[in-house]
């Protein structure tokens, strides 16, 4: 087993051929420091402008019980936004697959192992829940608030630009969402499809401008977590709301989906919540 240490993407398993492990190996987890991507947004690790979590679901989790019988579950992980590292998704998948031929005494033993390994990689406590594959807690739901997607707008800009964000003088409290979010993996260029929810109290956001802004991520290459932080910091700077919550629900890839959220202190998202296409 290798030790956990943040490195650059140059050595990450993402975008490379990989031999899938047959036995447990915590050293497969690949941490990536958050600070490098936050610095260009003016985010200081010592004074984060938000609270939040990265919520992951794993749909390809299996292990052997003490008698060698395969067990399966869906796992939900919650990684705090103030952890020094995020965990690269392909390394996470390889790590989870390393349990496929590993015998464990109980579900509790699996949870304890997952929490310890993920916390070591992230540099902060990570919570783990296991669900049966037909558990009602995983049933799809709908995002609350008004959907922006039926607005008839012209779009010519597909790289993030806060110039699209326009606010009025009226103070409102509203929840808006869109299913048109798309960004791209910063290593492989593969598309990442998602939905985004914005809940705020402050000067009214022009809805057409907000939708153009969200669509402008369409050719942007970045991790899911950093896209959400980018949206949050742009909205905070341009609209100066009293309260703000930004939450994305990304479609799964490789058996993993991720739903990061960032909010001003005191804000909490409508969790747990999963969408039909997740």
UniProtKB/TrEMBL annotation:
Source organism superkingdom: Bacteria
- The keyword Cytoplasm belongs to this UniProt entry's keyword annotation: yes
Supply the InterPro entries for this chain.
GTP-CH-I_C/QueF, NADPH_dep_7-cyano-7-deazaG_red, QueF, QueF_N, QueF_type2
Q: Where in the cell is it found?
A: Cytoplasm
Molecular function GO terms recorded: preQ1 synthase activity
Primary place of residence?
cytoplasm
Give the positions the UniProt entry annotates as the active site. 185, 192
Specify which residues bind substrate according to the UniProt entry for this protein: 87-89, 224-225
Q: What is its EC number?
A: 1.7.1.13
UniProt binding sites for NADPH: 89-90, 253-254
UniProt keyword terms in alphabetical order: Cytoplasm, NADP, Oxidoreductase, Queuosine biosynthesis
Q: Which reaction does it catalyse?
A: 7-aminomethyl-7-carbaguanine + 2 NADP(+) = 7-cyano-7-carbaguanine + 2 NADPH + 3 H(+)
A Gene Ontology biological process in which this protein takes part is: tRNA queuosine(34) biosynthetic process
Report the family membership.
Belongs to the GTP cyclohydrolase I family. QueF type 2 subfamily.
Q: How does it assemble?
A: Homodimer.
Report the protein's function: Catalyzes the NADPH-dependent reduction of 7-cyano-7-deazaguanine (preQ0) to 7-aminomethyl-7-deazaguanine (preQ1).
- The name this protein carries in UniProt is NADPH-dependent 7-cyano-7-deazaguanine reductase
